[in-house]
Design a protein that fits this description.
Bound molecules: 4'-deoxy-4'-aminopyridoxal-5'-phosphate
Distance between the termini: 26 Å
CATH architecture of the largest domain: Alpha-Beta Barrel
Order of helices and strands: EEHEEHHEEHEHEEEEHEHEEEH
Number of strands: 15
Largest sheet: 9 strands, mixed
Structural class: alpha+beta
CATH superfamily of the largest domain: D-amino Acid Aminotransferase, subunit A, domain 2
Mean pLDDT: 97
Oligomer: single chain
Number of helices: 8
């Protein structure tokens, strides 16, 4: 793959794609991003991803240096240039280069970066047999400190929880919020199925409102499965019939163990499978 990386409208080979070490995206995690999927040459829910990017920008008072129509065109162009039919897009907007102090208002040029790459999904075996999770002791950022609804470059909260998961031999970790409720995983939203209903934490639980999450809620509703956003605790996962995660990279992946305890019958459940099939169909539309 001859990778072409977009920086502010220009394209560079991977080794030549560089930004300033004074960029506040690097110095302070001051910036935002989106992770999107390309299926059969088309970006899945590009518009929704861009709306979320603009929302993140507004939340941190960052001016994206172009309008939504132009960025839409540029993302599509970057996909075409990289010639990938199926892949992943990382779209980043940094605060830009400034002085060494925190002051974001002294940063002149927000940097827009588009990386198109192949995607490494979880191994197939995990989609067949389900994922094991542990609950991280690192809680999700308090919404009044740094709202999880902002998809910011400041992902240390998630990285620390991910580390706990990996050290426990799990590829994902469950994160609780400051109230002890289930929030989400380090890079995925969480759902449970109980008595034929689909339950997932609401935005107020301190989560990123996933594009995949919202697509799955729509698919469930269309299929006559009631989807309810409500606060959940670990208890709800322990007594669930089924559990699964959603994310642009992960898509829909079953969860069968939490903290060493089997969920449901320890196998991916029928509603998870049904929604996974519906999702795979949707992304090809
Ligand atoms: N939560 C977090 C913390 C994430 O980083 C992501 C994206 N990887 C998600 C949830 C899922 O969001 P989406 O479906 O939009 O990819």
């Amino acid at each position: 793959m001859n990778q072409q990386i977009y920086i502010n409208g220009e394209y560079f080979a991977k080794d030549d794609a560089k930004i300033s070490v004074y960029d506040h995206g690097l110095l302070y995690g001051d910036g935002i991003f989106e992770g999107m999927r390309i299926y059969s040459g088309k970006v899945f829910r590009l518009h929704q991803h861009l709306l979320r990017l603009w929302e993140s920008a507004a939340a941190i008072s960052l001016q994206i240096p172009m309008d939504l129509e132009k960025l839409t065109r540029d993302v599509k162009e970057a996909v075409a240039r990289n010639g990938l039919q199926d892949g992943y897009i990382r779209l980043i907007v940094t605060r830009g280069a400034g002085a060494l102090g925190l002051d974001p208002f002294r940063c002149s040029n927000a940097q827009v970066i588009i990386i198109v790459d192949k995607i490494t999904l979880y191994p197939d075996e995990l989609y067949q047999n389900g994922l094991e999770l542990v609950t991280a002791s690192t809680i999700r950022n308090h919404p009044a400190a740094l709202s999880p609804r902002i998809k910011s470059l400041n992902y240390l909260n998630n990285v620390l929880a991910k580390m706990e998961g990996l050290k426990a031999g799990c590829k994902e970790a469950l994160m609780l919020n400051h109230l002890g409720q289930v929030a989400e995983c380090t890079g995925d939203n969480v759902f449970v199925v109980r008595g034929g209903q689909l339950l997932t934490p609401p935005k107020e639980a301190g989560i990123l409102e996933g594009i995949t999450r919202n697509a799955v809620i729509e698919l469930a509703t269309e299929a006559g499965i009631e989807a309810i956003e409500m606060p959940l605790t670990r208890h709800d996962l322990f007594v669930a019939d089924e559990c699964f995660l959603t994310g642009s990279a992960a898509e829909v992946i079953p969860v069968v163990i939490l903290d060493g305890r089997t969920i449901g019958n320890g196998k991916p459940g029928p509603i998870t499978q049904q929604l996974n099939d519906a999702f795979r169909e949707l992304v090809q539309k």
